[in-house]
Every structure is written in C-alpha cells, then in structure tokens.
Amino acid sequence: MDHGLWWPLLDGKQLAIVSGHADKFAARLIDPEFVKATGGRGVNWSVATKIRCPDRTVARREFWNRVPEELFAAEWDLLLCSAGSLSAVICEAAPQVGRTSLDVGSLDCDVQPGLMT
User: Which residues neighbour 23 within 8 Å (Cβ) at sequence distance 6 or greater?
Assistant: First the structure.
C-alpha cells in the first residue's frame, strides 16, 4: 500500500467487501487520511456493500449459502474478498456474473490504526 500501487485499482469504483473485518476494512479504505498516508491522492471510490464473515463456529457452507444473494444484489464494480478458504469460491463467482474480484486476504487484518501501511 505504501508504494501507491493499491489506490489506482480502486479509482472511481463502487466496492463490495467480504471479510471477517468488513466494517474496519471499509472504514480504512474510505479514510482520506489513511489513503493519503499510504500514497493515495484522495478517495474517489465508495463502498456499496460489505458482508462480515462469521467467526469459525459457523460452518463455511452455511455462510456461503447466504452470501450470493446479498452480495450480487448490490451494484458494485470491484469485490475485495478476504474470506479465508472461501475467498477462491467467492472470487470465482464474480466473473461469472460479469464483475471483477480480488482476493486481498493479507491486507485485511485487525490491526491498530497506523500500523498497516
């Protein structure tokens, strides 16, 4: 992120986020100060939808059965997915309906502000 390579991917997009930390991840991506501190020029994208993955006590199959309807009902251009073992399945579903996806697992973690750059 600190090399400025990340932000052009988001340029002008409406994002969908599937992650165990979806709210925090979305907040980080639309925080102008965070974006500027990590090489971005400004926030010109939005978060159209976010889906929080449940903890490990919920079966992945049970979670996945609920995701497609909610995820694909929203209008978005780019899916940022950090759903562990489900990321591949979720990211493969996006192109089948004409949308773009990116598995960003290592970028989405529960860290203190300012520690992830």
Answer: 50, 52
* Contacts for 111 with CB less than 8 Å, ≥ 6 apart: none
- All residues at 6 or more sequence positions from 17 whose CB lies less than 8 Å from its CB, including other chains: 25, 26, 29, 47, 49, 50, 51, 79, 80, 81, 82
pTM confidence score: 0.80
Give the span between the Cα atoms of 96 and 25, in whole angstroms.
25
CB 90 within 8 Å of CB 101: yes
CA 76 to chain centre: 11
pLDDT tens for the chain, 117 residues long, are 556 678 999 999 999 999 888 999 999 999 999 999 988 999 999 999 999 888 777 777 777 788 888 899 999 999 999 877 778 888 888 898 899 999 886 554 444 444 443
Query: Is 78 in contact with 101 (CB distance < 8 Å)?
Result: yes
Instruction: Look at residue 23 and give its three-state secondary structure.
Output: helix
